[in-house]
Write a structure and sequence with these properties.
By secondary structure, the protein is mainly alpha-helical. It has a domain of 57 residues. The chain is 86% helix and 0% strand. The radius of gyration is 41 Å and the shape is elongated.
Length: 165
């Protein structure tokens, strides 16, 4: 008996013709929509950087500084625009989700509101407990200070009585 008799040899998967057609369509789509635009943008960026370096190192005329400044400003603006869009996506999604949830009768913020109310109640009860303790502590200090003042006054008066007599 051989090992191949016990464990069958797995055959390599053969995709169907429709799967092969879909894979070819996906490759074509990725090339047109993903790889080609990224390649063109990268090429234009590389050309702009090389032109900027050439103008900075081998300035052929007096308007070079303005050109370099303009190219740097354009690069900064074009770099910031995608970041602005990305930063605006999450607040916009949060607002849309809240509005849509309220239209459907859902209240996604309700749980957060209940949590904040519990937190507020806990802070309020802690504040009241601290206030009661502080009042008791203040009363204790006032009582002890009053007792010390009484004893000191009593001793001073007693000392004056004995000095006079």
């Amino acid at each position: 008996m051989d090992v191949t008799d016990i464990v069958p040899i797995e055959q390599e998967y053969q995709p169907t013709s429709s799967q092969l057609e879909r894979a070819a369509a996906i490759r074509k789509f990725n090339f047109r929509v993903v790889y080609l635009p990224i390649g063109l943008i990268s090429l234009v960026t590389l050309i702009a950087v090389l032109a900027l370096l050439y103008l900075a190192l081998f300035s052929p005329n007096d308007g070079t500084l303005e050109t370099i400044s303009g190219m740097a400003n354009a690069a900064t603006i074009l770099g910031i625009v995608p970041l602005l869009v990305l930063c605006a996506i999450f607040p916009t999604l949060a607002i849309v989700a809240t509005v849509q949830g309220r239209r459907r009768g859902l209240a996604p913020i309700r749980q957060l509101q209940l949590l904040l109310w519990r937190l507020d109640g806990g802070i309020g009860s802690g504040k009241q407990a601290i206030s009661r303790f502080a009042q008791k502590l203040a009363n204790l200090f006032i009582t002890v200070q009053g007792a010390f003042a009484f004893i000191r006054t009593f001793l001073h008066r007693a000392a004056r009585l004995f000095k006079q007599g």
